[in-house]
Amino acid sequence: MRITSLLFCFLISLQVQAVTQITDFATLGLADWEEESFAGQSSYNLVKYGERTVLKAESNNSASGLILKKPVDLLKTPYIQWDWLTTAKLPGLNEQTKSGDDYVARVYVVIDGGFAVWSSKCLSYVWSSNQAQGTVWNNAFIGDRVKMLAVRGKQANINQWYQEKRNVYQDLIEQFGDKGSEQKNLKAYRYIDVIAIMTDTDNSAGNAQSYYGDISFSAQ
Q1: Is 31 exposed, middle or buried (CB count within 10 Å of its CB: 0-12, 13-18, 19+)?
Q2: Does the 20-218 domain belong in CATH 2.60.120.260?
Q3: 219: alpha, beta or left, given left = phi > 0 and alpha = psi -120 to 50?
Q4: How far apart are the first and last CA of the chain?
Q5: Threshold 0.85, pTM exceeds
Q6: What element of type H or E holds 12?
Q7: Please, are residues 49 and 161 in contact by the beta-carbon 8 Å criterion?
Q8: Sign of CA dihedral 138, 139, 144, 145
Q9: What DSSP string describes 150-198?
């Protein structure tokens, strides 16, 4: 009985440890995050929302994002989790076109191909103002190396927090192809290199305000 109990506690401890915390806004703030501007400056500030600290993003005809260069082992922690809220949507956009490529909120995960840019791959989990939830398309500017996934769509409510959970490893396989064997998949998709957050309205000259909760990766 004692051995069984010890084994059980050991297995539980492994599950507890199998979490990669990407953000801890309340304690660490935005340490190690870098801002990257594409067209003007969206603002990103830590604020209190209820009893917790969250990231407030505001965009006024601008496109800049926050980038964290941090490797994540998807073999150990394939599930990304976060929550978010937006106060308004961007009406009348076709987000599958260059003129409509704006989002009230999005979270990126990136496999960095380095100098072999054709090997880079990106999943962009977006809150779409006009596409149906579950819709997937190629980025209007970059093409099929960046897949846009409408985690929330036009049916979603504003001013409501939504909790998200995605199996990044499986999403990479589904969107960029099965390499033919589990061993090849592990080599191609095991690690992501960059996580990014972005609220942008530069193409539509619009305005958006959204909130992001902490981001983490987990085993389950």
Answers
A1: exposed
A2: yes
A3: alpha
A4: 28
A5: yes
A6: helix 2-17
A7: no
A8: negative
A9: EEE-TTSPTT--EEEEEEHHHHHHHHH---SSHHHHHHHHSEEEEEEEE
d(C-alpha 70, C-alpha 114), whole Å: 14
* Amino acid (1-letter code) at residue 42: S
Tokens representing 85 are 């809220």
177: left (phi over 0), alpha (psi -120 to 50) or beta: left
Q: What tokens appear for 127 in the block?
A: 């809150």
Compute the distance between CA of residue 150 and CA of residue 167 in angstroms, rounded to an integer: 14
Query: Are 211 and 54 spatial neighbours (Cβ–Cβ below 8 Å)?
Result: yes
- 180-215 per-position pLDDT tens digit: 666 666 678 999 999 999 999 999 999 999 999 999
